[in-house]
UniProtKB/TrEMBL annotation:
<keyword id="KW-1133">Transmembrane helix</keyword>
<feature type="domain" description="EamA">
    <location>
        <begin position="8"/>
        <end position="135"/>
    </location>
</feature>
<feature type="transmembrane region" description="Helical">
    <location>
        <begin position="7"/>
        <end position="24"/>
    </location>
</feature>
<feature type="transmembrane region" description="Helical">
    <location>
        <begin position="121"/>
        <end position="139"/>
    </location>
</feature>
<feature type="domain" description="EamA">
    <location>
        <begin position="147"/>
        <end position="281"/>
    </location>
</feature>
<dbReference type="Pfam" id="PF00892">
    <property type="entry name" value="EamA"/>
</dbReference>
<feature type="transmembrane region" description="Helical">
    <location>
        <begin position="90"/>
        <end position="109"/>
    </location>
</feature>
<dbReference type="InterPro" id="IPR050638">
    <property type="entry name" value="AA-Vitamin_Transporters"/>
</dbReference>
<keyword id="KW-0812">Transmembrane</keyword>
<dbReference type="GO" id="GO:0016020">
    <property type="term" value="C:membrane"/>
</dbReference>
<feature type="transmembrane region" description="Helical">
    <location>
        <begin position="30"/>
        <end position="51"/>
    </location>
</feature>
<keyword id="KW-0472">Membrane</keyword>
<feature type="transmembrane region" description="Helical">
    <location>
        <begin position="265"/>
        <end position="283"/>
    </location>
</feature>
<dbReference type="InterPro" id="IPR037185">
    <property type="entry name" value="EmrE-like"/>
</dbReference>
<comment type="similarity">
    <text>Belongs to the EamA transporter family.</text>
</comment>
<feature type="transmembrane region" description="Helical">
    <location>
        <begin position="145"/>
        <end position="169"/>
    </location>
</feature>
<dbReference type="InterPro" id="IPR000620">
    <property type="entry name" value="EamA_dom"/>
</dbReference>
Length: 303
């Protein structure tokens, strides 16, 4: 698929994932829904690796990288699925947009990347103001909404730690993206199955069509194709262009939640979302300059 197609695919997949999670939870418990999705994704990934690569076995020396990467799946994805029971799908996407800033905080300690600069600190304050505005708006809906926001905040922390930890270990262990994905799934699957067995344990016998199709969509499109498209654009496009995606997906996710699930959007939620996304845009002060520079290079190549 051309790079533009992969880029648009990532935007579409990231925008629709929170909505699909909400739909999958409508007919299954969060524990059963996420476990079924990950088991299906694991099987599909194993089949793809076996088809395109004869030496598909995982490398024992890469186990530390697999373990740290798996944290982005378990317990992170289980936390997201639980949060989907309490807050709108669009808010899940908005909260997840905090990940680059949280990752910057952890990277400053683990990777030595600079964070305590005026621009980044200001972006953090703006993002916290937006988060506080959303929190106060959701607090009026009751303790369930507050609990959902708390779960998503925990998810952002877990995912950011996994992301930064994986980047740190990649300096020592060189693994291909598909191998790393398969390794992360391998170490995450036992956690998903165990949590389903302990907290649910009910084997679904009747599936709602919408719920089942949502699980299949998340396994095939959200997990397998989503990872492939993301790693493809990461290799072919400047980081500046990839960094724009988290600015686009929350607004699309909010709109999809309203159209498909009749979710309501309050003014504080919109204003808070704008503050968070503005903070993300300003987090890297060179974002706009790099985008202009890349566009200029494309124009010069064509002339």
């Amino acid at each position: 698929m051309p790079v533009l197609g992969n880029y648009l695919a990532v935007i579409f997949i990231w925008s629709t994932t929170p909505l699909a999670i909400k739909i999958s939870n409508s007919g299954l418990s969060a524990f059963a829904s996420v476990a079924l999705r990950m088991v299906m994704a694991f099987v599909l990934t194993a089949i793809v690796i076996a088809m395109i690569k004869h030496s598909a076995g995982l490398k024992r020396r890469h186990w530390p990288l697999y373990v740290v990467s798996s944290l982005g799946l378990f317990p992170n994805m289980l936390v997201v699925y639980l949060a989907a029971n309490y807050i709108p799908s669009g808010l899940i996407s908005v909260m997840f947009a905090m990940t680059p800033i949280a990752s910057g905080l952890f990277a400053s300690r683990m990777l030595g990347e600079p964070f305590l600069v005026a621009r980044k600190m200001l972006a953090l304050l703006v993002a916290l103001c937006g988060l506080a505005m959303i929190f106060l708006a959701q607090a009026q809906l009751g303790p369930d909404a507050i609990f959902g926001i708390g779960l998503m905040a925990l998810s952002v922390v877990i995912f950011s730690l996994s992301q930064v930890g994986s980047k740190y270990l990649q300096q020592r262990y060189s693994a291909e993206p598909l191998e790393q994905t398969f390794g992360a799934l391998t170490f995450a699957i036992p956690g998903f199955v165990a949590s389903w067995y302990v907290f649910d344990g009910a084997v679904p016998t009747v599936f709602e069509a919408s719920s089942l199709w949502a699980v299949i969509y998340l396994a095939v499109i959200g997990s397998l194709l989503g990872f492939a498209a993301y790693f493809s654009i990461l290799q072919q496009l400047p980081v500046a262009l990839v960094s724009v995606i988290p600015l686009i997906t929350p607004m699309l996710a909010l709109w999809l939640g309203v159209v498909v699930l009749n979710e309501t959007i309050s003014l504080p939620l919109v204003l808070g979302s704008v503050l968070i996304l503005s903070a993300l845009a300003g987090y890297d002060g060179t974002l706009v300059d790099r985008l202009r520079g890349y566009a200029g290079k494309l124009v010069r190549r064509q002339t």
